[in-house]
């Protein structure tokens, strides 16, 4: 499922964070999921909402300080650090909370106690859809 999360529970958010597509997963429907993902992004952009994209490891890192690990670790971290978010033990809802927290942090309004650098280093890989990552220069395989 595509997960989209507003920074606040209000009808006109300033920013949202959406989980990056993971095209390496073996499940089907990549084309449909990609089209839907971009359609959702475009709807927010049309409404002048800044859309941040966070890869799954960065969502985990922001919550737990580690970019990998069991989904339960994110649930546990949200329960401990941000108890105002109700997740009912659902890892998708816990990811939703973390995406909202990332969007708020990107806007300069982090929620709760300051996080250690092990957590906030995740933000260096979060990008706005308005800013493309730098192009990697590679030597063409057929050039001399």
Secondary structure layout plus pairing:
Layout: E1 4-6, E2 15-19, H1 30-46, E3 50-54, H2 56-64, H3 71-81, H4 91-106, H5 117-120, E4 127-128
Parallel strand pairs: 2-3
Antiparallel strand pairs: 1-2, 3-4
Question: What would you say this structure looks like, in words?
Answer:
By secondary structure, this protein is α+β, with helices and mostly antiparallel strands. 40% of the residues lie in helices and 10% in strands. The chain has 5 helices and 4 strands, in the order ββαβααααβ. The protein has a 4-stranded mixed β-sheet. Helix 1 links the parallel strand 2 (15-19) and strand 3. Helix 2 packs across helix 3 (71-81). The longest helix has 17 residues, at 30-46. The protein is globular, with a radius of gyration of 16 Å.
């Amino acid at each position: 499922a595509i997960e989209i999360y507003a920074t606040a529970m209000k009808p006109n958010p300033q920013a949202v964070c959406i989980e990056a597509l993971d095209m390496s997963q073996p499940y089907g429907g990549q084309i449909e999921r990609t089209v839907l993902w971009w359609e959702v992004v475009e709807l927010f952009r049309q409404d002048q909402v800044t859309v941040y994209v966070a890869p799954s490891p960065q969502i985990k890192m922001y919550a737990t300080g580690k970019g990998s690990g069991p989904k339960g670790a994110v649930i546990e971290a949200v329960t401990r650090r941000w108890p105002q978010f109700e997740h009912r033990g659902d890892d998708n809802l816990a990811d939703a909370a973390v995406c909202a927290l990332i969007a708020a942090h990107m806007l300069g309004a982090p929620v709760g106690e300051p996080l250690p650098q092990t957590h906030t280093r995740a933000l260096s890989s979060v990008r706005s859809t308005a800013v493309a990552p730098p192009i990697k220069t590679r030597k063409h395989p057929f050039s001399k």
